[in-house]
Amino acid sequence: MATNPPxxxxxxxxxxxxxRMAVNQLRDAARHIDGIEPGIFSRxxxxxxxxxxxxxxxxxxxxxxxxxxxxxQHSITSGASxxxxxxxxxxxxxxxxxxxxWMSWKCGIMGLPYSGAKGGIAVDTAAISAGEKQRLTRRFTxxxxxxxxxxxxxxxxxxxxxxxxxxxxxxxxSMKVGYACPEIxxxxxxxxxxxxxxxxxxxxxxxxxxxxxxxxxxxxxxxxTAVVQGYGNVGSVACDxxxxxxxxxxxxxxxxxxxxxxxxIDIPALHRHVYENRDNPLKTxxxxxxxxxxxxxxxxAVKCDLLVPAAMExxxxxxxxxxxxxxxxxxxxxxPTTMKxxxxxxxxxxxxxPDVLCNAGGVTVSYFEWVQDLAQFMWDEDKVNxxxxxxxxxxxxRVRAKMLERKVPMRTAALVIGVEKVAKEKAMRxxxx
Length: 433
Hints:
Elements: H1 17-30, H2 38-44, E1 49-58, E2 64-73, E3 81-88, H3 93-110, E4 115-122, H4 130-143, E5 153-157, H5 163-177, H6 198-216, E6 225-229, H7 233-244, E7 248-253, E8 258-260, H8 267-276, E9 292-294, E10 306-309, H9 318-323, E11 328-330, H10 339-347, E12 351-353, H11 355-358, H12 361-375, H13 381-406, H14 410-429
Parallel strand pairs: 3-4, 3-5, 6-7, 6-10, 10-11, 11-12
Antiparallel strand pairs: 1-2, 2-4, 7-8, 8-9
């Protein structure tokens, strides 16, 4: 006997607080967009395609361990889906779906012919060897082979992954298709078709945005103070770029420790400590002699002009926002600020450069790399940096203009631009069949 289907099918992503935050941001932006049929926004709330895979890996002790991997393609409307691959202990499907959604808006804001995607494997990279990481990466690539390709889905580095990870994916994919295919990933080594300046692109883009925001609020950067949370690819480059501009970086933290020097941290010395100290296998700022140790929970509360959260999502909660004392927040991480915290920061008059704009330098130079690989014609670093600055300035000005026109916060303005572009493209393409 036939039974009626349930009225509501549970959304497998809804258990994630990060995913719910991304959906709420989408709904907030949709309220400011006219002329789009509501069904379009309903479609944008749920990823187009998601894959969960089991990844068996032979460990160094000859045992077999199972890992769980994810690849989520939020949209395929605007072009090949594009997004990083994250290795993190607590990564889950909902988090990856949220990151894929944010990537869609980011590509829309920057005007790139990409759709949003993201991937992840639940693994603590500090607990596995380089050989185990390579075997994990290659097997994951094999498992998702059916949904990736240079015109389908292009991966890039993210938290816990790097140029070497992309090289392994490039090689694995190329072995399967029978020819060298550098355009399958971006953020790979320059020697394998990577783009000069790609590793630094996200951090540089953050600082380009800071320069424009500082000009808008009449804040001279020379002598200004900064706090940076995260000292990985984004945070370390942001520190370098700020230091070069005469900004005093007074506090820096990573997932292990934080350090503070009110006179300004010697960034080149900190960089050497983190990346060249052989007694520091975790590559942490902990133990740096040029600054005092600071409790991690106190890092974001250090008074400064510029605050750069460049670590993980949802670190600025409502309670943390109440303790923040700065003029500009430049979001180098994805989703570092909760919606309740946004309201607190707005009341305090803090200028927030939202993640979907502020950290878009990475995907922008990834696009440059992809174009160069397709054309087999490589650019020099001057051209890469010049084009990045131009694209970031254009996007910043568009978002700033939308903010003033609609009298909405900077984040809402950015999301309106990104969401509207994708929604209009979806509406014009129609619903098949």
